[in-house]
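Cross-posting from the chemistry board since nobody answered there.

I work mostly on the small-molecule side, so proteins are not my area. We synthesized zinc ion and want a rough idea of how it might sit in this target. Sequence and SMILES are below. Is it possible to get a predicted 3D structure of the two together?
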Amino acid sequence: MTPAAIVDFLAEREGIARGRSLLRAGASRDDLRSAVACGAVERPRTGVYCTPRLASAQRTAAAHGGEVACASALRRRGVWVLDHEERPHVWVGPHGRTFRHDGCRCVTHRDDGISAFGDVSVVRALVQLATCLGDEAFFAAFESAWHPGLLGETERAEVRAGLRAGQRSPTDIARPDAESGLESILRLRLLRRGIAVECQVRIDGVGRVDFLIDGILIVGSDG
Ligand SMILES: [Zn+2]
Ligand SMILES: [Zn+2]
């Protein structure tokens, strides 16, 4: 198999595949070595090959042993995530091996399923986030994913089903019109203190305000 044919094979598989799949498709070990040597193909870890154009997050996840997960997968889809560390979160399946690689700061996720390459679904990422970063981060990400339509009714039900019973209450008060993650967190905190709050209220002479608390106090959140 020529380097170009190997690149085509990888491109048909979202840019990444195991070496054994390439061998089965007719590549020899020498073909793989040549493709890496000439720079047409990269090897994020032993036995895994990718095109140089593969997103760096996916390459890091493959080097670590799995898929872009949790906060990392959500951020890549534009979801707002409360996490200042910004470490790579990687799902390797329940018994998946992890691999040493340069600059590894990964957070390993081991929930059930069969991991491969690429990004986990938004549903799986949100369920992972609830356990990994807590309910406020989960709530903000859930609303942030709902707002642009990344979470339909079916997906919201799947997220809820994936959560433990004690993690589900934020999904009962989530709404599709939150405009920033900080707004979501502020509203969650107010509601949990039993404070009545209306969101995105239009007030004559003022315009639209983020929150109206007990009908008298206007709060803006700068997200
Ligand atoms: Zn995580
Ligand atoms: Zn790592």
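Reply from a structural biologist on the board:
Welcome over. Reading the output above for you: The chain has two domains: 3-54, 62-177. The chain is about 40% helix and 15% strand. Happy to explain the token format if needed.
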